[in-house]
TrEMBL record:
Protein name per Swiss-Prot or TrEMBL: SusE outer membrane protein
A Pfam entry, by short name: SusE
Organism of derivation: Williamwhitmania taraxaci
Organism lineage string: Bacteria, Pseudomonadati, Bacteroidota, Bacteroidia, Bacteroidales
One Gene Ontology term of the molecular function aspect: starch binding
Gene Ontology CC terms: outer membrane
Ranges of residues in domain PKD: 288-331
Coiled-coil regions, chain positions: none
Length: 335
């Protein structure tokens, strides 16, 4: 991974001329030879190698004569047909295209999850503009799609581990040793926190962390918001339940609310639940101090009840855009 990202798909093209007396006429091949990948590096990206570079090797576009072309290295989720494309690099008539591992990781994180293996389709796309005398015309050619495994590293994180299994994580948005996130706990189990980058493990008690300390006991079941500071060696755990309440929900307007689960990959809260005709709202910790109502695109504190016009099984996804200001949006799909 300590190599140069180098697409040998850009440069001088082969010349094909038919000569008439003292003049030369450029002839475009009926089927230009498209770029191809020759080698693709290992795309298991790690934070430790962030300043290193990668090397892709390909062949040239050959339209049958010397022409300028712009080249793009692109990626998308496997089978997406480049509808949802990550543009990695582009350049014109150059012999090399440079990118660091950290820059590539940042680009691909917009399309792929971190800290897990994903399948990605890669291609080289060449765009050539030809001036025919009466106006220019654009031609586009793409290489054969290559499917590869991609492993990205997410934000610096601490993994919560119980029984040797990772059950949750908190992340450091600034990479400064201060972490936050949501973890679903079981009060019959104990937990250690592991920094996979530094290979350090933390335990603790009563809000104090210690390296290689005893596993932490959490006296609560369900989702909690966790804050941890490995610089100050402190942690805090606070109940954080998002639930569905209302006349259309299983328990009506009474608690306990129908619990939603957090999806760390999308940053949303989700539930699949049977509803009847009536109304619903979202609230935190079975209480009204924090609640959301309104429309699908605009949820606000103490907003209007949300109507459910037909009974059935629904999947509801809630996005909290501002926790403190109590703003959000949601989707509701009848299954």
């Amino acid at each position: 991974m300590n190599k140069l990202l180098y697409i040998m798909s850009i440069g001088m093209l082969g010349l094909l001329f038919s000569c008439e007396k003292d003049e030369s006429k450029a002839t475009m091949l009926e089927n230009p030879i498209v770029p191809t990948f020759q080698t693709i590096p290992d795309l298991t990206l790690t934070r430790a190698a962030g300043t290193n570079t990668l090397k892709f090797v390909g062949t040239l576009l050959n339209p049958g004569y010397n022409a300028s072309a712009k080249y793009f290295l692109e990626a998308c989720p496997k089978g997406n047909n480049f509808v949802n494309t990550a543009a990695i690099l582009s350049d014109v008539q150059d012999t090399s295209m440079l990118i660091t591992v950290s820059d590539l990781n940042s680009i691909l994180l917009k399309k792929f999850p971190g800290d897990q293996v994903s399948e990605a389709d890669l291609r080289i796309r060449a765009v050539m503009v030809v001036d025919g005398g009466t106006g220019s015309k654009t031609f586009e050619y793409t290489s054969e799609t290559k499917t590869v495994n991609v492993t990205l590293y997410g934000l610096p994180r601490l993994d919560f581990i119980t029984g040797g299994v990772v059950v949750g994580k908190v992340e450091s948005a600034l990479g400064n040793g201060v972490y936050a996130g949501f973890v679903k706990f079981d009060n019959t189990k104990t937990y250690t926190l592991k920094d996979p980058d530094a290979n350090k493990t933390y335990g603790g008690n009563s809000g104090i962390l210690s390296e290689n300390g005893s596993a932490i006991s959490i006296n609560d079941n369900g989702w909690n918001k966790v804050n941890a500071d490995v610089n100050g060696l402190t942690y805090a755990v606070a109940q954080y339940r998002i639930g569905l309440v209302g006349s259309a929900s299983p328990n009506g307007w009474d608690s306990p609310d129908s619990p939603m689960d957090y999806d760390a990959a999308t940053g949303t809260w989700q539930i699949t639940v049977d509803l009847i005709v009536g109304e619903i709202k979202f609230r935190k910790n079975d209480g009204w101090a924090w609640n959301l109502g309104g429309t699908a695109s605009s949820l606000v504190h103490n907003g209007a009840n949300i109507a459910v016009s037909a009974a059935g099984n629904y999947t509801i996804t809630l996005t909290i855009t501002n926790d403190v200001g109590e703003l959000g949006s949601f989707t509701i799909v009848k299954n």
